[in-house]
Write the structure tokens for this entry.
Amino acid sequence: MMPTKGTFWGVVAVLAALLVLSSTATVIYYGEYEAAASQNQIYAGELKTALASYRTLQGSYDSSLSDYNETISLLVTAVANLNTSTPAYQEASVALSTLWGEYQALASSAGETHLIYGMHMLVDYGNGTRVWYNDTAAQPGWNAYVVTLVLLDGRVQATWYPQYGEHFVTGIGGVSDSQSEYWFLLTYNSSSSWQVAQVGADAIPAVNGTTFAWIYCPENSEYLPTCPLP
């Protein structure tokens, strides 16, 4: 049976509508891609500026605390908003860790330790190796992700999702997610002890006494860790 003229034009109308929808979606996704690329260029520029400042500080032993503080802030902003695969990310993370150690020494000698918070972090590699970082120094405005970067000299694998403002961590200290084991973030409080974090590391602020942990273990059907909590 031959299609009627009405049927033919109906099919044409549907195809045209689908084409319009497809084109609209393409424009939207392209716009989002362009915005993300532009933002990445901004962070890359900040990273370049921060690294240049870091190298300048390396060659000057009489730099002020404010110079260190400004450079640290630039480095934190850069590494906290980039994927770990971004060029110069590793260099920036190591520079941040080194510079932070130098800043603490200067702040201590100047009697300005009140600007530094104390945090506690546990890394459980799932093979019996557990490393505690107690009374870890952190700056106001930092978060658990930045603290993890500093303590591990940048040895963190993660993907940055700007739409959520969070990193998805897939590797810590040279141990990466596998098909059966993954990294989980835990938080601690005196009333409920250890629990799986309800937010990402980027959303856990650095305050005095904050305690958190990274554990590597299998997950169940509800995407929760099956290994015993600390």
Q: What stands out?
A: The chain is about 45% helix and 20% strand.
